[in-house]
TrEMBL record:
Pfam family, one: 4HBT
Molecular function GO terms recorded: acyl-CoA hydrolase activity
Top-level taxonomic group: Bacteria
Name recorded for this polypeptide: Hotdog fold thioesterase
NCBIfam families in the cross-refs: unchar_dom_1
UniProt keywords, alphabetically: Hydrolase
Gene3D superfamilies: Hotdog Thioesterase
Keyword Hydrolase: yes
Species for this entry: Caldimicrobium thiodismutans
Domain Thioesterase: 23-93
Length: 114
């Protein structure tokens, strides 16, 4: 993937289901958050979330392949915003929309050991 973007995926299993037998919202949030973290740190400089929100559109069920695709929406010296769409593969049916903002630090993600 290019700098400023990322894609991750998972398969919904029994352990991810809630009492309604659909994927628990926190699982979907975590998948989107992982794509957000990978995209925002893809430049090699540390970026930490200061805001994140999600809108659930449709439920995901056991056996579904969920794909979270993160794209950079805007970036300045200190702030960046990312849009993450979670969809059901291979149909591309939208499951959730996540928006996150990071504060960008002027230091590497993985500092060298001294």
């Amino acid at each position: 993937m290019e700098e400023g973007s990322a894609q991750v995926e998972m398969i919904v299993t029994e352990e991810h289901l809630n009492a309604a037998q659909v994927c628990q919202g926190g699982v979907i949030f975590t998948l989107a958050d992982l794509a957000f973290a990978l995209a925002s740190n893809s430049y090699g400089t540390l970026a930490l979330a200061i805001k994140a929100s999600i809108t659930y559109i449709k439920p995901a069920k056991k056996g579904d392949l969920l794909i979270a695709k993160a794209e950079e929406f805007s970036r300045s010296k200190s702030l960046a915003t990312y849009h993450i769409t979670v969809f059901r593969g291979p149909t591309q049916e939208k499951i959730a929309f996540f928006e996150g903002m990071v504060y960008r630090f002027d230091k590497p993600v993985f500092p060298e050991n001294s």
